[in-house]
Design brief:
Length: about 240
């Protein structure tokens, strides 16, 4: 047993699992593991290297992890650097600690983007095997036909291979909500073009459990401990 480090219940409480007493109860019930072993009351952990999990879901306890939710405006590039000197999403968040965008939105696409220095979470959020949903509102050049909507729902053959079936609902005449769990380059735009209905405006409105309609374009905020926990649950996978 690690005799150094912090008490496990203190670490769990700091990461949104309730009071220290509530976290002690989690430990006593055998729901917490450290490096794969069921933890006991009094366990101490080194947050820099020990892997802590609750109900089988890994908790990001490493110090210095940050998670920002940004409402990306149109015209901003979703990369850490740009050789052409264009404004990037990194310019919109604090310079330290250094973070990177999780996935990409093309320059013309607006909406929610996660930026973090948590590499494990970033991998799981972008890998299709974890099935994390991304929701978009797409304004099309004209109202889509029933057959076009059906094709989007069933999956399409694009130049980089077939897409997985999407969840598609017509919100208004030319406005559709599209939910996918893949993250290919310009995927939603290419899907809509493939069925003959080009996108004239695209906004990402949800990433897994994350939704925030109060963020104005260009604004960002840190995720709460509960939101980080909801992402950790969302990227849990029995596969990979």
């Amino acid at each position: 047993m690690n005799q150094g480090g912090e008490r496990l219940q203190k670490v769990l409480a700091r990461h949104g699992f309730g009071s220290r007493r509530a976290c002690e109860e989690l430990i006593a019930l055998g729901r917490v593991t450290v490096d794969g072993d069921v933890a006991v009351l009094g366990r101490r952990v080194d947050v820099a290297c020990d892997e802590v999990a609750v109900d089988g879901v890994v908790v990001g306890v490493r110090p210095g992890l940050v998670h920002y939710l940004l409402n990306k405006p149109k015209g901003v590039i979703s990369t850490a650097d740009d050789t052409h000197g264009r404004r990037t999403v990194i310019d919109l968040v604090p310079p330290e600690p250094r973070v990177f965008p999780v996935g990409r939105l093309d320059a013309d696409t607006e909406g929610l983007l996660l930026l973090t220095n948590d590499g494990d979470m970033a991998h799981r959020l972008t890998h299709p095997s974890y099935g994390v949903e991304k929701e978009y509102l797409a304004q099309l050049r004209s109202s889509p036909s029933r057959s076009a909507v059906r094709s989007l729902r069933e999956g399409l053959n694009l130049d980089d291979g077939p897409t997985a079936p999407a969840r598609v609902n017509v919100v208004e005449a030319d406005l559709v909500k599209i939910i996918i769990h893949e993250g290919r380059n310009r995927q939603v735009r290419r899907m809509c073009e493939a069925v003959g209905y080009p996108v004239i405006r695209l906004v990402r409105t949800r990433i897994g459990p994350l939704v925030d309609r109060s963020l104005a374009p260009g604004e960002w905020r840190e995720l709460s401990a509960l939101e980080v926990r909801s992402l950790e649950v969302a990227v849990r996978s029995t596969g990979d």
